[in-house]
Specification:
Helices cover about 60% and strands about 0% of the residues. With about 140 residues, the protein is an all-alpha fold. It is rod-shaped, with a radius of gyration of 48 Å. Belongs to the FtsB family.
Length: about 140
Amino acid sequence: MVRDGGPDRGKREADSSQPAKTQSAPLIDRRLLFRVALVLLILVFLGLQYRLWVGEGSYAERHRIEMRRDALAQANAKARSRNDAMQAEVDDLKAGDGAAEARAREEMGMVKSGETFFLTVPDETGSSAQPARKRSPTDDD
């Protein structure tokens, strides 16, 4: 509206001669609608943030799954190497008598006829014990 008069001035004067109409207040105030919309947007944002950091499919859950995957990969690698070693041993046992004979000697203590078997027993005192020292005539107590 223009205060100093202008094209609307005559119209306003004509309107003032008529009884003033009361404008009905809008059902929902625009400010209230804006506040409700703002609160809803904030709640949606917080809900999405919760899912991102804590909920299903979050960064924390993804990290746990990756750590478990790495642990399983290491366990699989160890099992694979053990299985490869066992398969090599099975192939060696199937291939010839030398491996079977060596295994029988190591695990069961088998001896061929005409051989002499010597069993060595470790010292019972253990490796921490020191051998006795010979005394020389110059040592004093």
